[in-house]
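Batch manifest, entry 17 of 40.
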Amino acid sequence: MTRNRFIIGGPAPWPAFTAVNDSIRGGSSTSSFAVNHETNVATFAGHLDYTTLGGAGFASQSTTFEPSRLSLPRSTTSGLFLTFLPPLSPPSHKTPTKFTLNIKDSKPERRPDGRRESVTVYEFEVDVEEYRDDGLFDEKVDADVEKGEGKARRSVTVLAKWDDFKPFYRGKPKEDAAPLDPSAIYELSFMCRSNFGQQQGDFSLDIVSLSAAPAHSTSSNWFRTVCQTVSGWWSRLVGAVLSLFGRESRDGAVRLE
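Output type: structure tokens
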């Protein structure tokens, strides 16, 4: 059986991350990236502000792969497994819960003033609030559970398929962009943005790991689902036939007449 390849987190070390916030455009959002060396869980946190820029704001932390690119060819991988710890409590009004995992497969050029030119960014969005109940426990069960405020939580893993990463250019969808080339990933980042005033304030995302999903993971899951569905249909069909033309014996077996 092919195992998932851990890229960062889990048993793999975390690379250095650098802040890329809306302050480069005059905004006030901030972000940080810290790793707990006992658990190897990284926390992407900060404050998201959209008032300074009139409704738009973002905070992000990025890492680059150079001189060698991160190579995850489509022939051997189907996407990325993002594993994180869901929030313990419901969010307050406009508290950020939506985060994006961003990938660049081309290296931005530098302008004369040192700023980077814009390139196509491929984005996958996840709303951690949707997984809050999936991560809660009534009691402690094993090592992957974290306690807090009388509750416990465990990690949740989401599959981000390559084709689920949508291309954007300067914050707008780029319909004519080429498909993401995961065999030559230059930059990877975690972002929290206002989505034009939909969320703001302090945010925090505990990231357990990021790993490559084997190419067969999607197809095998699909095949298993089809088999289970067909099996269910067949069981119901047999049950219906037996109820119409059969009867139960004293020992509980069904016999056809």
